[in-house]
Every structure is written in structure tokens, then in C-alpha cells.
Amino acid sequence: MSKRAAAALVAGAMVAVLTACGSGGGGGSADKGAGHKLVVGFSQVGAESGWRTANTKSIQESAKKAGIELKFSDAQQKQENQIKAIRSFIQQKVDVIAFSPVVESGWDTVLKEAKDAHIPVILTDRAVDSKDESLYVSFLGSDFVEEGKKAGDWLVKEYASAGGDVNIVQLEGTTGSAPANDRKSGFADAIKGEPKFKVVASQTGDFTRAKGKEVMQAFLKSQPKIDVLYAHNDDMALGAIQAIEEAGKKPGTDIKIVSVDGVKDALSAMSQGKINYDVECNPLLGDQLMDLVKKVKAGESVPRRIKTEEGTFTPEQATAALPNRQY
Amino acid sequence: MSTAAAATSPVKAVTRSRLFWPAVVLAVLLVANLAFTPDFFAVRLQGGHLYGSLIDILHFGAPLILVSLGMTLVIATGGIDLSVGSTVAISGALACLHISESSDPGSLGTVLTALGIALGTAVLLGTVNGLLVAKAGVQPIIATLILMVAGRGVAQLITDGQIITVTSDPYKMIGGGYWLTMPFAILLSALVVLATVLLTRSTALGLLLESVGGNPVASRLVGIRAMRLVALVYVFSALCAALAGLMVSSNVSAADGNNAGLWIELDAILAVVLGGTSLNGGRFSIGGTVLGALIIQTLSTTVYTIGIPPETTLVFKAFVVIVVCLIQSPAFRAKLAARGARTRRTTRSHAAAPTNREVGA
Question: Phi and psi for A66 in degrees, rounded to 5?
Fold first, then answer.
């Protein structure tokens, strides 16, 4: 442990020297002498899902790898905790503050404080809703609309030659959350060109397996014909698969399934042919974040919006990716 | 109304029953579904087991029935147990963790050990609640709030914030399996409900509970060991919650420490209240609680089948619950009847004042 810490320290010192050259003393708190290691304060939403845990691990490991000292704070899904954490980061004079906002609004005051202290702020995974764009330098995260669109595009291609109506049921995420809203609208945009696609039922499954199963069971009874299931995340899709099987139908064959996330359990279901298409929502943005931190600290200009690198999975790709999946 | 002269008429006896209004509400909800889904009541055999919306309601309602059952007895003693949701999460997490880590997840022995661990922990958690309330004299709402908050964290600690997926046929049986064409979960909760009814109604236990809830001091003075009784009730509630937790996690073959049993304590309290048990303690009705739990589950199923948009679901549910509570309130019914009578016979405006208003125990 101490050896690793020492190694990290050395690496950190090297980075600090490099950044000191690059920044030219532009930052407010960069002049703490030689051997100063880049310090990042990161406030995480919480540990509400496997996805989030993978996100946290990625950030912690990437920071270690990049020789950056990470002050990590878990907000437990509460905005006031997050505001407190950011204030304490400002007091500790960290070099960069990064955070995943729990909610979209109410950040102006605390971000203004960070700006006055000349500490750049990077948003990860979720955006804030603020008129003053100078309050943060960049937003690194998934584009949920794009994810919904990818799911819809696949559907359009898959049913390009099919005549007749395609009845779709949708399992939405937690009502009002950004991923649920955006994945719904992106998907709707992608399929609206062709009237044969009909969303016959759409209900929230709260992003959980149990609810996904419960809602799908009700759909199977109330809808006479279901061709496609679109789930806003993999957990709901996995719950729905069980419901479909209990109804005596074959998931992936009788009812085609499109989902979002790309977690290990879903890829494993894909390799058994139970999910037809999965749009990746990548939590492993640690490396990209640390790169961004270094660039910001070096005074380089960075794009306002950086999308995480995300792909899509067909069953074949899922089978291939499965052995190395971390989450 | 006034023509129903004889007070002993069988119709009146039925409408007077505490189970009458919950049963009416449940029936109305079910029939309302028929308008949107013509084959709502259809039950058929599908792959060797019963398949239909009614079965679904019973199946998904089973964990809620269990949790509400424990809650009924707690509320009968004048207490409340907010920690049941966390207990649901902890028991599922412990069982799934044990099964996923064992070398032979499919063996009956592994599953029985897992059940033992989960139920044993529940006894421990219930004892802590019981001692806090009965021995230390902490207010029940505070005593169980501790475990409600901390317990969720414990469940997340056990699962490491991840969802633990298990593949074990014996474990799957509890919540997702079928026995004699019926979902096993339904049979299991029916068994627990039946056992509880027998235990409380054919022995003096139920009477003692109501006595403790109605007046703890007087109960103690006549020689009822109130303290032990109250503590035991919290253990029972935790056990019911743990069993429900096993069902929930077994149904999806996965333990979700973050979401399993989230807010189920509120649904359970609602079920108890809809079933006609007073939150002040005293008289309780297990049959009413079962009906209450089924009303809540039917409401959820209704939302899914008639396609109420998710944004308005909560408003819809709140509306139905308010109506149900109003219908169940004898004071409200009397007022409504009085107003109806007044408009019919405008000459005698004060004649129809409620005379036989039921007074809560």
C-alpha cells in the first residue's frame, strides 16, 4: 500500500511539474511549490446502482493511474450534501472540482463561489440547468437522447422490409429523470418517420428488475400483440425477460428486445439470444475525466460538451465482449 | 334507506361488517378493469401453471400481504414499524449473497442455509426494534426509523451497491416458482396469514394484543406481560418482512439492496388502514389487511393495464385512496346519507341526523 502510494506520489510530482510548465501560473492555486500534486475534488451522486459503482471505481482508479490526488465525496442522492462537499473543496483549494449533479437546478450560488476562487468545475454524467455558462468549463457524459435514437435507428433498420404495424411497448425509467426523458424522446424521434411503429403501452419500471417484470406481466395481458420491447435500462429488460418467458413466449424471438446500458448480466442474456440490441451507456469515464482535468489545469481550451465513448452491442458483439466486462 | 326496518336483516349485517367496504372497493376496481381489458378475469393454464391478471395481482401482492400482516399486529399494539422495507432488502441481500458465494448454488442445503441466515438476521433486527420500543421506551416511530435508514445502508453494504444475480432453482421456487399450478408465493403467504389468524383468534393472543394496544397501563395492571408481547410483535413483523424480502428477490432471481422493498412500509401502513385497523391501536382485522394489500396491488395493475401515463400515476393513486378512505369513514357516509335525505325531503331538514354512527374503538 505504502509502496503504491509512494509511486503515485512520484508520478504526481512529475505531472505537477509538467502542468506547472504548461499553465504558466494562470490558475489561482497552482503555486504551492514543487512536488505539488494535482488535487481533484469529486462529488458523486451516490451508490444507487451497479452502473454508478462502476463509475466511481473508474474515477478512483484513473486518478490513481494518472497520479492525481482525488478527494472523493458521496452525496447519497442529496443536493445539500453535494453543495457542502463543493464548499469544502473550495476551502481546501483543490485544483479542479468535478461532480455529477444530483438534480439539474440550484447550483448557481455554489458554482459562483468556485468561480470566484478560480477553481474550474467539470460536470460528469449529468448536466446542470444554469443560464450562466461560465460557471463550468466542460460537461463530460453520455448523451441520453443519442442513446434513445440509436435504439430507435436499429428498430427502423430491423423492420425496414416488414409490412404491417409494429407494436412497441416501452419500459420507462424513473419518472422525471433525465435519462428516462431523453431516452424516450430520442427513441420517439427516430421512429416517428414511419407510421407503422406504434408505441402501444408505456409505463415506468423505475429502472428496477422487479418493477420491469411486474409491468411487463401486465402488458402481456392487456396488449393483444407485442412485437418489440424497448427498455430504458438493462435491469428492467432483464425483469421483463422473465415475465415473457413465464407467458410462454421466447424473448428475443417472439418479442424483440432493445435495451440501454450494456451491463454484464444483459450481455450474458444477449449471448443467449434473449436481447436483440443493446445501446451502451458507458460509466467508465475516469480516464477521459483525468485527461480533461490535466488539460484544464494546463490552460488548454477544452470543448464545452464531451461525449463519453459509447458503442452498441449486437448479440455477436456481446458474446465477444462478455469475458472482459467489468460491471 | 329508512325502509330497511329490521336491524337484524342479513343485508345490514353484511354492510355493517368491517370487511364490507374494503371488499366493495376491491370489487369495483376489478370490475373497472374489465371495461378496458375484456378478458381481465380470464385465467388459463400456461405451461403447467395458472396464468392471468388475477393470478398476477395475488402473486405480486403476496410480499405486500406478508409485510402488512406483520404491520397489522404492530399497529394493533399501538406501535408502527418503519423498518420493514430495509428488512426486506437485507434479507434478500443476505440470502442471495450466500447462494452466489456457495460452490453449489442449486442445492437445497445451500438454499436452506440462506433462508436460515436471512430469517435469523430478521429475528435479531426485530428483537432490537422490540427492545428499543418495549424496554427502552423509545417511541416506535423513532425506534424503527433508525433501522429504516441504517438498514438500507446495511443492505447496500452487503450487496456492495451491486445487483447480485443468482441462478438457483430451489431459491427461485419461493417467489417465482409454481406448486400445484399456483405460484408458490401465493400459497406461502396464504399459509402465514392462516397461521396468524388461528394463532390470534383461536387463542387469547389476539385479545391480549388488542388489550395492550387499547390501554397499555390497564393491561399491565390486570397482569398482561405487555412488554414481552410488544417486543414479540416486532420480531414477528421483521420475520414477515424477511419472508417478503426472500420472495421479492427470488422472483427476479436477484438482490437489489438499493430498491428492494423501497417504500413498502408506506404501502403496508396504507393496506392496514384501508383494511379498517385504527392507527391508534386496539382492534385489528387481518382479513381487512389482506383486502387492503390486494386493493393496493390491484391499483398498480390497473395503472399498467389501462395505460395511465406515468406522470399522472401518483395523482390517480392518491385520488383512489382518498375516495376509499372517505367511503370507509362512517362519519362521512352518515353525512352523505344525511345530505341525500335532506335533498329528498326538503321539509324536514334536520330529521336525518346520524343516529347510529359507529364510534372508533
Answer: -85, 0
Alpha-carbon distance of A174 to A154, in angstroms, equals: 24
Residue A286 near residue A258, CB atoms below 8 Å = no
Separation in Å, CA of A36 to nearest CA in chain B: 34
My answer on whether A34 and A9 are in the same domain is yes
Same domain, residue pair A31 and A137: yes
Question: Do B175 and B249 form a contact (C-beta atoms < 8 A)?
Answer: yes
Average pLDDT over residues A298-315: 91
Q: Does the beta-carbon distance from A209 to B163 stay under 8 Å?
A: yes
Q: Which residues 32-51 of chain A have a CB within 8 Å of chain B?
A: 47-50
**pLDDT tens for residues A39-56?**
999 999 887 667 888 899
Summarised one tens digit per residue, pLDDT across range B266-306 is 999 999 999 989 899 999 999 999 999 999 999 999 999 88
The nearest alpha carbon in chain B to A172 belongs to: B310
Mean pLDDT in chain A? 87
* pLDDT tens track for B106-149: 999 999 999 999 999 999 999 999 999 999 999 999 999 999 99
Q: Is the pLDDT of residue A80 over 70?
A: yes
Interface of B with A in 253-312 (CB under 8 A): 253-254, 256, 258-260, 300-301, 303-307, 309-311
Residue A327 lies in a domain: no
* pLDDT category of residue B233 using cuts at 50, 70 and 90: very high
Quickly state the pLDDT bin for A2 (edges 50, 70, 90). low
Assigned domain for A316 exists: no
Residues A15, A136 within the same domain: yes
**For residue B165, which residues of chain A lie inside 8 Å, CB to CB?**
265
**Cα distance between residue A62 and residue B258, in whole Å:** 26
Q: Which of A215, A222, A247 minimises the CB distance to B51? A: A247
Q: Which domains does chain B have, with CATH numbers?
A: 22-307 (1.10.3470)
Cα separation values, B224 from A171, B70, B79, B214, B278, Å: 53, 21, 17, 13, 22
Count of domains forming chain A: 2
Asked if A77 and A134 sit in the same domain, the reply is: yes
Q: Are residues A11 and A31 in the same domain?
A: yes
Residue B36, chain A, CB below 8 Å: the answer is yes
pLDDT of residue B17: 81
- What is the chain B residue with the closest CA to A76? B153
Q: Is residue A322 part of a domain?
A: no
If asked whether residues A90 and A148 sit together in one domain, one would say no
Distance CA B248, CA B185 (A): 9
Best of B88, B169, B304 to substitute, by most chain A Cβ atoms within 10 angstroms, is: B304
Read off the CATH number of the domain in which A79 is found.
Answer: 3.40.50.2300
Of A127-141, A212-226, B30-44, the range with the highest mean pLDDT is A212-226
Q: How many CB atoms lie under 10 A from the CB of residue A133?
A: 8
Could you tell me which chain A residue has the CA closest to the CA of B177?
A246
Assess whether pLDDT exceeds 60 at residue B165: yes
pTM for the structure as a whole? 0.82
Q: What totals of helices (H) and strands (E) does chain A contain, helices first?
A: 11, 12
Contact flag B313-A214 (C-beta cutoff 8 Å): no
Does A122 share its domain with A164?
Answer: no
Buried/exposed A284-297: b ≥16 CB within 10 Å, e otherwise: bbbbbbbebbbbbb
* Average pLDDT score over residue span B61-73: 97
Range of the structural domain that residue A37 is part of:
2-142+284-309
For residue A152, is it within any domain?
Answer: yes
Residues A210 and A295 placed together within one structural domain of the fold:
no
Average pLDDT of the residues of chain B = 89
